[in-house]
Backbone:
């Protein structure tokens, strides 16, 4: 499937006007409340997700914490350009089997040359995910993080990030060559149905259907175990450690991260619950 880039980027495509009710958890003790919201970074105009309990969490929160702060997100393009090039070009014909190559070329033709021969495998995969997002007519300006950033900035509330852009992209850059090639091949093989798959993925997000989201993640990432560890499990463990530390100080926080990080036994809520914190699904 070509969903891994979208799971990591949190892209999705519910119909405009969809009444989305994404999953949200509350981690709390006597004086600290951390709402944990699963996000989609890109959505169509008119997606209604910030009502009801999410609206109440936004109003109650003293601060917003996302994967990347607005400053780090703005730096991501520059850092990608620095990390993405290969030392020596390698044609896509030498990287992909014929069927996968044909699907890759079809996706490329839908919006212009990726310049993939000059890029690392992981970088080509990221560009493929962005192209699927464009073809599904999604916009990052309509995504959950963009809307939350505007709301918290407008209310003069602080906004922070769990990672830097360099940290995120280096996760891909440092994957071993075999893992990168497996991810690229798998993504290319699924490009023909990628837009349809993204829509199904986001319908699950909009329903708050964590079982369906977990199924998608398992199908896509378990085929490449090294990727699961580096891109999902290890990061979730670090974010869980951040929550533990933040629980030592009073206040209310909205933590908004890609929905793929919040489901299954190695998702952040499950990790926190297993470590003894009080975790409740509130939407």
Residues:
């Amino acid at each position: 499937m070509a969903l891994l880039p979208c799971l990591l980027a949190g892209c999705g495509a519910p119909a405009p006007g969809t009444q989305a009710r994404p999953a949200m958890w509350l981690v709390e003790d006597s004086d600290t409340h951390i709402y944990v919201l699963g996000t989609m970074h890109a959505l169509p105009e008119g997606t209604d997700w910030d009502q009801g309990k999410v609206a109440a969490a936004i109003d109650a929160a003293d601060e917003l914490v996302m994967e990347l702060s607005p400053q780090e997100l703005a730096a991501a393009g520059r850092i990608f350009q620095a990390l993405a090039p290969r030392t020596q070009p390698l044609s896509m014909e030498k990287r992909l089997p014929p069927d996968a190559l044909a699907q890759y070329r079809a996706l490329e033709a839908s919006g212009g040359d990726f310049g993939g021969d000059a890029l690392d495998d992981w970088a080509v995969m990221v560009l493929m995910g962005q192209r699927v997002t464009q073809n599904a007519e999604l916009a990052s300006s309509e995504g959950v993080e963009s809307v939350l950033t505007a709301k918290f900035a407008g209310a003069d509330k602080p906004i922070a990030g769990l990672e830097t852009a360099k940290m995120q992209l280096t996760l891909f850059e440092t994957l071993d060559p075999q893992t990168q090639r497996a991810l690229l091949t798998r993504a290319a093989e699924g490009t023909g149905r990628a837009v349809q798959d993204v829509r199904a993925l986001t319908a699950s997000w909009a329903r708050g259907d964590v079982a369906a989201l977990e199924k998608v993640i398992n199908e896509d990432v378990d085929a490449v175990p090294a990727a699961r560890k580096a891109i999902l499990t290890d990061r979730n463990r670090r974010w869980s450690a951040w929550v533990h530390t933040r629980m030592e100080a009073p206040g209310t926080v909205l933590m908004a991260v890609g929905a793929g990080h919040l489901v299954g036994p190695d998702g952040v809520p499950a990790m926190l619950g297993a470590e003894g914190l009080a975790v409740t699904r509130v939407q």
Remarks:
- DSSP finds twelve helices and six strands in the chain.
- Strands lie at 24-28, 32-39, 63-68, 159-163, 251-258, 278-281.
- The two ends are 29 Å apart (CA to CA).
